[in-house]
Protein 1
Amino acid sequence: MRSVPRVNQIVSDMAEIDLERVLCSLAELTAEGCREFTIGTGNWPLRGLVVQTSAGVVAAYVNRCPHAGHGLNLRPHKFLTPDGSLIVCSSHGAVFEKATGVCVAGPCVGQGLLPVPVTVADGYVLLAADVDPSILVAD
Ligand code: FES
């Protein structure tokens, strides 16, 4: 007979995760290929996106296009080309590699999205512990 974890055991397992740094779950990322996140409050929170490459690499970027500084998406969580292989800016069509954030076509070729350092723990993608999100907003 399989044992069912008690509620306090689940809470105990989750206690080591800083919930304010959770960007998304791996399950969400696997199912949809990309997730949008907001860390912080007020007028200037950190807004970003998390992607997973076909090789399983997880990467995150600030949601700001290097071409004109616009947010990349028009619809929630929609950042990818139709085949899911690249990140696309909805403003003028720049496309970026998922693994590096480098623009490979469009008006800002050779420039890149600002990376957000992340860690993966217990099925969640987290903002890395040593990163101050306000620094990324200011860049
Ligand atoms: S703002 Fe992204 S391509 Fe122009």
Note: The pocket of FE2/S2 (inorganic) cluster is lined by residues 65, 67-68, 70, 89, 91-94, 106-107 (CB under 6 Å).
Protein 2
Amino acid sequence: MSFYSCKSQSSPEIYKEQQTAIAEDTTFVNLKEYSTDFVYDMKYATEDNFLKAKVYDCAECYLRLKTVQALIAANKEFLKKGYRIKLFDCYRPLAIQKSMWKIVPNPEYVADPAKGSIHNRGGAVDITLVDKNGKELDMGTPFDFFGVEAGHNYPNLSKKVKNNRSFLKKIMTQHNFKSLDSEWWHYNLQSALKDKVANTKWDCE
Ligand SMILES: [Zn+2]
């Protein structure tokens, strides 16, 4: 990425400006073009999800560039400790949100497309952690489990599950992501709410 190469030649002021520009960059990009350190299990590109329907034509993880930068920084921390992020869902075009809403028109399970979710803004990810062998850490429930057990504050979880969830939350929070109380897998980039809902669809080969 070009901004790294010009770092050393820049004055502190210009460098700061560049950093601000990067932090605010809302361009949609494909995560795999910026890092090879993630594991992907894009559930909505398969029928293995709560909708029992394949709603994406192909599995790609698009996000706004600022979300990608924050996610890569968080993943570097996990990698240092022997883990990495596995992704279940990233940016979700508004048209897809509408088709999900058609299948399950219940705001407890699907964000109302009239409001749009942070996934539609390119600032949310659904994730878990895997170890060196690619094995998912025990988070107490599967992804998209709609019950109180999926909540961060649910008390009847084993110590191991609580530790795994708080490990994920701690590092993500340190990298400007915000957790959602009811879903241990969902993280929003702090600044994403001010970004527009989008409907850009990515190309499939
Ligand atoms: Zn989510």
Note: The pocket of zinc ion is lined by residues 89, 119, 124, 126, 186 (CB under 6 Å).
Protein 3
Amino acid sequence: MKFKNPQSPLRYPGGKRKLAKAIHQLISLDGREVETLVEPFAGGASVAISFLENTEAGVILSDLDPLVSAFWSVVFSKRAVELAERVADTSPSLSLWQDLRNSSPRSDVERAYKCIVLNRTSFSGILHHRAGPIGGLDQKGQYKIDCRFNADRLSDRITTLSKFSDRVVVLRAQDWRATLHFVRKGWSTSKTRESLLWYLDPPFFEKAERLYDYSFGAADHNRLRGQIDKLPGRFILSYDDVAASRQRYLKHPGFLRINLSYNARIDRTERLFAGEILVSDMIARLRKRSVLPPMGRLFVFPERGLASRLRVELGSTSVAGKMKSGIMK
Ligand SMILES: C[S@@+](CC[C@H](N)C(=O)[O-])C[C@H]1O[C@@H](n2cnc3c(N)ncnc32)[C@H](O)[C@@H]1O
């Protein structure tokens, strides 16, 4: 069956739409099916959506941001109908944007609505409290506030995703360590843990404090580094490819660079551009079996066009000329 690329209703800097296919490819190389995917840094939840639409797996979602976690808990519940109707009836304007920015929603549906409208009308989908509206406060920018808000399409997407509700558990807004605690308790035997996959996509190392209201400091990144090899089940971790992530993970046997990159606008003047790294126990195993390239080589994601956009040079060898679809050996 053809792989269905995930389409999240939320826009996220570093959203993992393109990475999802590579993740499924990795799992099939590893050879064991995933019964439950855990995504404790949900954001736009692209990888979770790819599991719902391409596999039979169950999904556990969580995010520390209360707007984001409320959004997913409403989407995967009966209240999705109410949210979908409200979204369908929305025509974004600067005054709606300002009202929502200043609002303190009391119910999950209100929070979910605030989340999707601000996400689709602010620069790069950034939910940061200082992020401005698309088009600027004077609406003199090239793109206006409603340019990313196709009300009917978003509403349909919410309705479609809600049909997977019985396969999804959304935990309340909480730190990833609380999610780890929850999973450890529920999946207590080594047999049940074999069927788990963690997909961890923590806040970027660089500029994260400008992208998310809930970002990571050095101590948070270190704590995650300390836990990564003790997680119950398999794991895939993705990060921006910068000195700080390389410093922590370069020596991990499951460290891999991948030919994906972000290009997200932070505000009217600044962009974020970074490559991507993956770290996974599956990568370490596949490397031992020589299925994946050795350390320092690139994992080429099999999608047309990406190869030619590659800007990464590894060591003295330019890899751009050697790329083919599939995994580079
Ligand atoms: C890089 S984004 C995730 C993007 C997501 N993978 C996607 O496809 O859109 C990181 C997310 O982690 C959340 N976050 C930040 N600190 C957290 C923490 N301590 N525990 C759980 N989530 C956290 C942020 O709110 C943000 O939504």
Note: The chain has two domains: 20-64+174-319, 84-160.
